[in-house]
Automatic annotation (TrEMBL):
It comes from the Eukaryota. Residues 1-21 form the signal peptide. The lineage of its organism: Eukaryota, Fungi, Dikarya, Basidiomycota, Agaricomycotina. This is Glycoside hydrolase family 79 protein. Keywords: Signal.
Length: 265
């Protein structure tokens, strides 16, 4: 009986295996379409870095960047057909932190009681020096940097943008304006506002846009490096795009960005 059951199980496994291994006929086109071709380059995928942990990855200054990190990024660069490695620096901590240009330390924690998923820090211009040194060492990095939208009237946001652009130059690929604004209400980032809507968000975007036209490196809007909306959870991307946000800011947008987590459908 046991032997017959074994044979039956073996036949079943073979049948399933043969079914899974069935030949699928694929006929690729002889040539790519001539119109509206979207090219996905070899450096499309990148690495996302949280600001509050940046010293763990890149040390405290240009002389202490860990060699294993440089080796790893160099290995990635060698596999991108000479294109820059794509690195994003941002997260909740970038949205809640303060840039102090003359601060000597790359980052300093400012709230020891902060939630682990949103640890505000202060950071100095040495951060941009480290980012530039990393890019120069490995052969090229396309940096995407978060800009805070928590206070659209903040003078710190254009200060970050101008100094980052001044140091990084062409290595600065894009500014991610705002991090998960669809969670501003639930995270308490709009006190006194019962529901932070897409239309409130558009208004904040306009205010910050006006400030980014006057930074320490001039009008960074003219560089067309802005990216958004970088939502994740509570708003539908298509609804944001059709709300007027895309038509309002399309001329200055480089990327449309979306945060996506394993639990998102």
């Amino acid at each position: 009986m046991a032997f017959r059951n074994f044979l039956y199980l073996l036949q079943l496994i073979c049948a399933v295996t043969l079914s899974l291994a069935a030949t699928v006929q694929v006929t690729p086109p002889s040539a790519p379409p001539s119109d509206n071709v979207t090219t996905v380059y070899s450096n499309f995928y990148g690495i996302s870095l949280e600001l509050s942990f940046i010293n763990y990855y890149f040390g405290n200054d240009t002389s202490s960047i860990p060699q294993p990190v440089l080796n790893y990024l160099s290995a990635l660069h060698n596999r991108t057909d000479g294109r820059p490695v794509r690195l994003r620096l941002g997260g909740n901590s970038m949205d809640s932190s303060t840039y102090i240009p003359d601060q000597q330390q790359i980052i300093e924690f400012t709230d020891p009681t902060a939630n682990v998923n949103d640890q505000p820090v202060s950071y100095g211009s040495v951060l941009f020096d480290v980012m530039k040194a990393t890019s120069d060492t490995i052969g090229g990095v396309d940096w995407l940097i978060g800009l805070s939208l928590r206070d659209p009237n903040s003078t710190n946001t254009p200060l970050v943008a101008g100094d980052a652009q001044k140091v990084l130059g062409d290595d600065l690929d894009a500014f991610l304006l705002g991090n998960e604004p669809d969670l501003y209400t639930s995270h308490g980032d709009r006190p006194g506002m019962a529901n932070y809507s897409v239309y409130d968000y558009i208004g904040d975007y306009w205010v910050t846009f006006g400030n980014l036209a006057n930074t320490s490196d001039g009008d960074v809007l003219s560089l067309d490096k802005i990216a958004g909306p970088t939502i994740c959870c509570s708003w539908d991307l298509s609804a944001v795009l059709t709300s007027g946000w895309l038509s309002d800011f399309n001329d200055r947008l480089k990327y449309i960005t979306l945060q996506h987590y394993p639990q998102n459908k």
